[in-house]
Design goal:
Layout (H helix, E strand, L loop, with lengths): L19 H4 L3 H12 L6 H15 L2 H13 L4 H5 L12 H14 L10 H10 L2 H23 L14
Helix pairs in contact: 2-8, 3-4, 3-6, 3-8, 6-7, 6-8
Length: 168
């Protein structure tokens, strides 16, 4: 296993020299469709942003973590909510519906020692809190961020750069 020095300098350029969205322009339509699906209003935008931030934290993507933290701040989210996403289980800042969304995100993105990632109990809890269209939207929001996780981890866009142009 490779060890990393905490004093190592991190490159401030993307791993891929060219923007993959420019190399594969068909991505624009897919991306727009995913944003339209998750922005259908059945789930509060803040909940979707919270789960996207948690996804970035889980996979260890500085780009996604910085991006979604910035989106939450821009939307006026309280700093306490943003900074406690990583410890949401014992944080007083989230309601039951947000907790279910965060739990679903973790279940999908983290391996389970028991084989089944999304338990029947977790699904039942989420289904109690969300109407079917909203639960589907949550599922697609987790899928959306998962889609972009591959870009964040493989291409490594520069953290803190514009979402629309992280390669400049």
């Amino acid at each position: 296993m490779e060890t990393r020095s905490i004093t190592a300098r991190v490159p401030m350029g993307p791993r891929m020299a060219e923007d993959p969205a420019r190399l594969v322009p068909e991505l624009a339509a897919v991306s727009a469709a995913l944003f339209k699906v998750t922005g259908n209003g059945s789930v509060p935008r803040s909940t979707i942003s919270l789960l996207q931030l948690r996804a970035g934290q889980i996979v260890g993507s500085t780009y996604l973590t910085v991006l979604h933290t910035g989106f939450l701040r821009k939307a006026g989210e309280a700093e306490e909510r943003i900074t406690s996403v990583s410890s949401w289980q014992d944080s007083p800042y989230f309601d039951e519906a947000e907790r279910a969304a965060l739990a679903l995100t973790e279940a999908v993105l983290q391996p389970s020692a028991h084989g089944q990632r999304v338990s029947d109990a977790l699904y039942a809890r989420a289904a109690e809190l969300y109407e079917p269209a909203a639960l589907s939207t949550l599922m697609f929001a987790i899928g959306q961020v998962s889609f972009f996780i591959a870009v964040a981890l493989i291409a490594k866009p520069v953290p803190g750069r514009s979402f629309s142009d992280p390669w400049n």
